[in-house]
Design a protein that fits this description.
Blueprint: H1 18-39, H2 46-71, H3 77-94, H4 97-108, E1 120-123, H5 125-128, H6 132-137, H7 139-145, E2 149-152, E3 156-157, E4 171-175, H8 182-194, E5 198-203, E6 207-209, H9 213-219, H10 223-226, E7 231-232, H11 236-242, E8 257-260, E9 265-268, E10 275-277, H12 283-297, E11 303-306, H13 324-340, E12 345-348, H14 354-357, E13 368-370, H15 372-384, H16 388-397, E14 405-409, H17 422-427, H18 432-443, E15 455-457, E16 467-469, H19 472-475, H20 478-484, H21 487-506, E17 510-514, H22 547-553, H23 564-584, E18 594-596, E19 604-611, E20 614-621, E21 627-630, H24 631-638, E22 642-645, E23 650-653, E24 657-660, E25 665-670
Helix pairs in contact: 1-2, 1-3, 2-3, 2-13, 3-12, 15-16, 20-21, 21-23
Length: 671
């Protein structure tokens, strides 16, 4: 087999920097070892090696610069660089031919995830279908609903009873045996790909379970693996760090460090005592996690959700959140993927200040990102029946770099935190602290007149901090309405659900439904009977799917067996299904381009979506009362006088005023 010979130093220009020279010299020295890796294949890999070389030449200098800034002063820096490059070769040799072809397409079509046809859903495998085998049997449900992007919540091996919902991983290369096998996961990925459904998995890379083999080695006294984590002999350093750290789960335990009796040491555990934070100051950690990432990529994944990105880099004297080198680590991971598996995107999970969230988003870091600010402010607008704070934030905090996208969600597996900017609130005369207290009271049903049935999560009586758990339907008033058996309240709750879903599907980005939302799943209070879940109120919105019930809701209209409650859930399912269908029919809803416009009504949100000559005007009434919008606002934005409302399927004349029913959503297309 003829292999490619190369001299990277000889290719440098005379003006090349010292860093570029070091990068090229490093490649020259590593290249013979890489050639041996290519020779290990029994196949003719000349074409694949040329692809590797082309990608390496395009990305190596940026990658080397980041690796050098992180680890260049380490004695073993070059060993790790060489080993990581070998890992890329191995990953490329092991990558399925379908995935290789996908990589090549997506390198050209960098906006592949920005289509109006991309509609997401998230689920826990055990709660949705029991296991991966039965999940494959339910692909028809995703097709019926219209889902084209499926996020499976953590499914890799984790200890029973100490899993944090799967976020305490004990083996990145083994599926939880209760859910299936790696082979079944690969088969699922293949089946989804054939049906045009993207697969998204979590990459939990801030911490491992204390039962991971690395943690077990550390507990046994292995000095090499002790350096994989932050382990201290006494409280001296933990106390120095603790001065600047916040507590994530204050009702579970105090502080960020856990005493380990077996070692007689303190371990850094930001989230739970059984989740040990990884030490990315150690290049062995970066290299090992990069290898785990490439393994997961080769299972057939389209995107990886990077869990807890804000916490991955620690420095004394800081709050150890959103530090510059956290971005450097993610950018380096990204560059490894651009060489080995460029068809895969990163999704950022950063539930932090809005100004920090956007820093993780870029073609060189995370191409897509959760949009926690939009989620919080949609609920804020529903509680206040006004859109001022939502408008204020969207006016200057929603734009993203090219070839990136928001993931817009209303509920997820996690809680709701009120992540709006205090200065945005202050500009409107709103005291941010008091307003968060109001929202907490409103969504736990403690505020007079509230329709919501949420429950507190991590309520801190000392500080007043709290987050909210609950399903979309229960928070939007459906639980209360059904309990009171009042049809008018049911109608209002259904309107709130459709309004929020419709804004999420049209405002720009990938809409993501936590499955169960599509038919109005209510809170499940029975979680308290399970000792492993009773202390975590988030399980209230993670009930098990009742397929005998859901299959009935998917049947044709007029089924005689439906009760009044079933009719409500049937309507919600089919309205959600229709919104998804309508979204896919509107080219203007691709991409991120969105312009707000003034509706001259404090209760009505207005924006226009524009894409390659297509325009869609969106109006959303957040009030429980009818509202009016001056037709001039719509004419000057939509460039027309007569419009077709795609949702109501009626003509709208913008010559005068446009009427809006309580919680009505309009998608207006110029005729």
């Amino acid at each position: 087999m003829e292999l490619i010979q190369h001299d990277f130093v000889a290719e440098l220009s005379e003006t090349a920097s010292e860093m570029e020279f070091r990068a090229a010299l490093t490649l020259n020295r590593v290249w013979p070892r890489l050639e041996k890796s290519w020779r290990s294949s029994s196949q003719d890999v000349t074409a694949l090696q040329r692809v590797f070389l082309e990608r390496l030449q395009r990305h190596w200098y940026a990658l080397f610069e980041r690796l050098y800034s992180l680890y260049g002063q380490r004695f073993d820096f070059h060993f790790h660089v060489e080993t990581m490059l070998e890992s890329i070769v191995v990953a490329m040799l092991q990558r399925d031919s379908e995935l290789v072809a996908m990589d090549q397409r997506r390198e050209v079509e960098a906006d592949w995830f920005q289509s109006e046809s991309v509609v997401g859903a998230a689920l826990y495998v055990d709660l949705f279908s029991g296991n991966l085998g039965r999940l494959r049997e339910n692909i028809s449900y995703f097709k019926q609903l219209g889902v084209t992007y499926l996020h499976l919540m953590p499914l890799f091996a984790s200890p029973d009873g100490k899993s944090d919902g799967g976020y305490a991983i004990s083996d990145y290369r083994a599926v939880d045996p209760r859910l299936g096998t790696v082979r079944e996961l690969q088969q699922l990925a293949s089946d989804l790909r054939k049906e045009g459904i993207l697969l998204v998995l979590d990459f939990v890379f801030n911490h491992t379970s204390d039962e991971h083999v690395w943690a077990k080695q550390a507990q046994s006294g292995n000095r090499e693996y002790k350096e994989f984590y932050f382990i201290f002999p006494d409280r001296t350093e933990p106390d120095q760090y603790e001065q600047h750290l916040r507590e994530i789960f204050p009702t579970v335990r105090r502080g960020n460090f856990t005493w380990h009796d077996g070692m007689g040491r303190w371990v850094w555990t930001t989230f739970n005592s059984f989740q040990w934070d990884l030490n990315y100051h150690n290049p062995s950690v970066f290299r090992s996690m990069m290898q785990e990432m490439l393994f997961i990529a080769n299972l057939g994944v389209d995107a990886l959700r990077l869990d807890a990105v804000a916490f991955i880099w620690k420095e004394k004297g800081t709050n150890c959140e959103n530090l510059p080198k956290a971005h450097t680590v993610i950018q380096a991971f990204n560059l490894f993927l651009k060489i080995a598996a460029p068809g895969l995107a990163f999704k950022s999970e950063a539930i932090v200040h809005p100004d920090e969230v956007v820093k993780y988003i870029g073609s060189d870091e995370c191409q897509i990102s959760y949009n926690p600010q939009l989620m919080a402010l949609l609920w804020e607008s529903l509680a206040t029946q006004k859109v001022a704070l939502l408008n204020q934030a969207l006016s200057h905090r929603s734009r993203l770099p090219p070839q990136t996208s928001w993931v817009n969600y209303l509920r997820c597996h996690d809680d709701i935190g009120w992540t709006f900017d205090d200065d945005d609130a202050a500009k409107l005369g709103i005291n941010a602290y008091d307003h968060r207290q109001f929202l907490n009271q409103f969504y736990t049903g403690r505020f007079k007149g509230s329709f919501a049935r949420g429950v507190p999560f991590q309520e801190n009586l000392e500080t007043g901090d709290m987050r909210i758990s609950g399903t979309l339907a229960s928070l939007a008033g459906l639980e209360e309405a059904l309990e009171l058996k009042k049809p008018d309240l049911v109608q209002l709750a259904e309107g709130r659900i459709e309004l929020l879903q419709g804004i999420s599907m049209s405002i720009g980005g990938i809409p993501l439904i936590y499955l169960g939302e599509e038919w109005g799943m209510l809170n499940d209070y029975d979680f308290v009977t399970n000792p492993a879940k009773a202390d975590d109120s988030r399980w209230i919105h993670r009930p098990k799917m009742d397929w005998s019930y859901v299959n009935g809701l998917c049947e044709v209209e007029g089924a005689s067996f439906r009760s009044g409650k079933e009719e409500v859930h049937y309507r919600i399912f089919h309205r959600t299904q229709r919104l998804i269908e309508l979204r896919k029919s509107q080219p203007a809803l691709a991409g991120q381009e969105m312009e707000l416009f003034e509706t001259l009504n404090p209760h009505v949100l207005g924006f226009v979506r524009i894409r390659q000559g297509h325009r869609l005007v969106v109006l959303g009434n957040f009030s429980d009362q009818p509202q009016r919008v001056d037709g001039n606002c719509i004419r000057s934005t939509g460039f027309g006088r007569f419009f077709q409302d795609a949702i109501a399927d009626e003509e709208v004349n913008a010559s005068d005023v446009v009427e809006m029913a309580p919680y009505q959503l309009r998608w207006l297309i110029r005729q």
